[in-house]
Amino acid sequence: MAASLDPTSREYKRARRHHYKTTKNRTEGFDTDWTPFRVAEKKYKARFPPPDLSDVLDLALLDQARSSEIERAGWKGYADTVLTKEIGLRDAQATNARTRKAFTVTGIPGLVVLPSFVSEGTQRDLILWSLGEHARHPNETNLDAHYFLPPSGLWPTYLHSPETIIQPRAPSLMTSPSSDTSGPRRLVSNAPASPATFSLIRSTPRPSPAPSIHAQPLSAAELIPRLRWANIGWSYHWGTKLYDFTREVQAVGEPFRKVCIEVVRSISWHDVFGSPDVESLDDWGDDGPDWQAWEETYEPDAGIVNFYQTKDTLMGHVDRSEICATSPLVSISLGNAAIFLVGGLTRDVAPIPILLRSGDIIVMSGPACRRAYHGVPRILEGTLPAYLGEGTNVDDGLWAPYARYMDTTRININVRQVFPKGFNPGPSQT
Ligand SMILES: O=C(O)CCC(=O)C(=O)O
Ligand SMILES: [Fe+2]
């Protein structure tokens, strides 16, 4: 059982003390102007008491093969908190012994949940790739602005010689040991991208972020837990929440691309968007509903790998920097489980909490979901599946450092399509 769920554990008692200390001076009505989205975020973020998961959709419970993973984790929700519908899924990978399933959620048309879509072996491959191959030059990470990262990559350096000292970019002030180089991903409010605003977007200046003066020289081992994100494909400028089309686009790593294309081609989109009530959704954009063509036109070209330590959260936000406003966003969960909130087009819509476990995929698509508010208020500590932990039967010694890192980590690979297939952004003017 996760220590935070066990009232006799030190962690539980510490969370209780902290809770009493921080809430004793609250005035009545402190939460009256919170939006429904904010209320849900606060609920699942709470360290004490541990959040009640009775409203959390947990589709892994429908799969007998996952019962030991669920029991071991301790945290669980329910499979019937909201109405879901199983939809058709072509099993593109017939060699996969497990029967994959896909579900839509009534109330959020365009959301598809695919529990356990990624096999255990592919989960390991994606973790290896995310850390070893992807989170390094030329793909930008949150640490690049502040540190001279080794060109061979931080993770390979850590594996090879964990004591290597990594120097900060700015001369550091020996003030506090804390640093603002990791912490939450900063979220900026931006206008939705569209073909009409593209040239304006392209000419908006994107100042480079200033290196932190608080960054201290740290060993590779100390820096690894501060890795928070790595860009995929088009370079994303966090300060303006705009893609930087002046920078060369990187290829989407083949292991990510393969899973995304497989998932989009496997889903029976007719089951998602073909019913009369969903078909009448407007706001598909100038070309109207194009889901029938996704099998051919879907081509991921951007995204982000998020690395969450168990205390990290991701505030509610909308991903609207992509020109394609309805094409599928594929989101893969690896490692520790999380509570994912997904609501509507404003924060005033109460979100649906979904428990996402390792290997689960969600797809956000269409006008009601692709630009819906969503966030991750909680990583559920102690939920790493045994097959990703230390001493697994596939462990030939090489997996051990990955297992140790993953013990307190959730990785999310979040892949989007910025441009419609065939759209040529043309030569840059900036
Ligand atoms: O970690 C997740 O599940 C969601 C991440 C996300 O929403 C994002 O990267 O924009
Ligand atoms: Fe997002």
Q: Could you write a compact summary of the structure shown?
A:
With 430 residues, this protein is α+β, with helices and mostly antiparallel strands. It has 13 helices and 16 strands.
Explain this structure.
Its cofactor is Fe(2+). It is built from 13 helices and 16 strands. The chain has 430 residues and is α+β, with helices and mostly antiparallel strands. The chain has a domain of 255 residues: Sandwich (Jelly Rolls). The protein has an eight-stranded antiparallel β-sheet, with helices on one face. The site of fe (ii) ion has 3 residues, from loops.
Helix amount, in percent? 10-25%
Structural class: alpha+beta
**Largest sheet properties:** 8 strands, antiparallel
Tell me how many strands there are: 16
CATH topology of the domain at 53-125 and 235-416: Jelly Rolls
Rg is 21 Å
- Which range does the strand content fall in? 15-25%
Q: Can you write the helix and strand succession as a string?
A: HHHEEEHHEHEHEEEHHHHEEEEEEHEHE
Low-confidence stretches: none
Distance between the termini: 54 Å
List keywords for this structure.
four-stranded antiparallel sheet, single chain, binds 2-oxoglutaric acid, eight-stranded antiparallel sheet, 23% helix, Jelly Rolls, globular, binds fe (ii) ion, 16 strands, alpha+beta, 430 residues
